[in-house]
Design a protein that fits this description.
This protein is mainly alpha-helical. The protein is built from 15 helices and 6 strands. Strands 3-4-5-2-1-6 form a 6-stranded mixed beta sheet. Strand 4 and strand 5 form a beta hairpin. Helix 8 packs parallel to helix 10 and helix 9 crosses helix 11. The termini are far apart.
């Protein structure tokens, strides 16, 4: 077993120690991969479960602990900002829920070890009504697209305001997905901010991973998020969740994710949503390792000096079409979805 995956299993309590003591070179490689996968804090928990003779070199352990402490401070800052967002939404007369990172961290045994990026806030209402409310409060909104925009609420934390939790390229699947979000929205009118339950996250996070996998890449942290979602999901919800994912055209991708759950985390069969697809799963496992967190290591995502908008459009399409044979239902619609996004932004004056 690869030392990185072995440490992951130790972190999850599926092993107590390495089968073979890692040397300093192996530890540096594991630490580098932890950075690439945004899992420094999470895997630090596994490091401190090791017997003394298997610990990393002292200087590396110190650096690892310091990075983990910093991740913890960021987490607590995010928690504080969520409270401040609750007050803001109350003042603006809006209601929403926290998506992804800050909310999913609550599923972890030690939430403050999960690295958080920005705060994703889905707000109930139309694009125009939400933007006007923030404009009236003199809060700048920028990088506006169909799905989301950035909000200049805090100086030290980026807030991403979602008009829609996620989207799909296929317009028919996307329409079904938006109806699902509307029908199963966790947003309530009696409180300013809520958190989705595991059943909603099982659909939303799969859609989120599917889109990012096609257009940029996903990493091990997103997969581990889903591991904890599956473990929190009520057994009676597994069949209806899988039925919904199939209806949305994500059956094959879900089967590949189940195979990844089994290989990377040792997830037991009882938690599966469907039978794992080991062929697609093997590809997904390899892609997750080589792409890194949200495709940070995938050179196909790099913008080149002097790259025109058309060249960028074509590069992104080539990236998506590399998965045509595996997920044609989504991939073939990618160029049209991108063009419609461009037209929508042009009409709205957001370019």
């Amino acid at each position: 077993m690869h030392p990185f995956r072995e440490l992951l299993w130790i972190t999850l309590g599926r092993a107590d120690s390495f089968q073979k003591d890692p040397d300093p070179k192996a530890w540096r490689m594991v630490y580098r991969m932890a950075h690439q996968q945004a899992m420094v804090g999470i895997l630090n928990g596994g490091v401190h479960r090791l017997p003394a003779h298997q610990l990393p070199p002292e200087d590396l352990l110190k650096e690892w602990d310091e990075k983990t402490a910093k991740i913890g401070r960021i987490y607590h800052t995010h928690e504080k900002h969520v409270t401040e967002l609750e007050a803001l939404l109350t003042r603006l007369g809006l209601h929403g829920c926290i998506l992804k990172g800050t909310g999913l961290a609550h599923l972890y045994p030690v939430p403050e070890r999960r690295m958080c990026g920005d705060i994703d806030l889905w707000i109930k209402g139309t694009h125009d009504s939400i933007l006007k409310a923030f404009e009236d409060a003199e809060i700048p909104m920028y990088d506006i697209i169909y799905q989301e925009c950035k909000a200049g609420v805090f100086l030290d934390t980026e807030v991403e305001v979602h008009f829609h939790p996620s989207k799909m390229y296929n317009p028919f699947s996307n329409a079904r997905l938006q109806r699902y979000f509307e029908k199963n929205s966790p947003i309530r009118d009696d409180v300013p901010i809520t958190y989705p339950d595991a059943r909603f996250n099982a659909v939303f996070c799969m859609a989120h991973m599917s889109r990012h996998y096609l257009e940029g890449g996903i990493g091990m942290r997103q997969m581990l998020d889903y591991y904890y979602i599956l473990r929190a999901l009520d057994p009676t919800d597994r069949v209806p969740v899988m039925a919904e994912l199939k209806r949305l055209g994500m059956g094959r991708f879900t089967a590949s994710v189940m195979a990844s759950m089994q290989f990377n985390f040792g997830l037991e069969d009882d938690y599966f949503l469907c039978t794992p697809d080991k062929v697609l799963g093997k590809k997904l496992v390899q892609d997750v390792i080589t792409m890194g967190n949200f495709g940070v290591m995938d050179k196909r995502n790099y913008t080149h000096d002097g790259e025109t908008k058309w060249a960028r459009f074509m590069r992104k399409n080539r990236r998506v079409f590399s998965n045509l044979r595996y997920y044609p239902r989504e991939v073939v619609w990618s160029p049209f979805a991108r063009l419609s996004q461009y037209v929508w932004r042009a009409v709205k004056g957001y370019l």
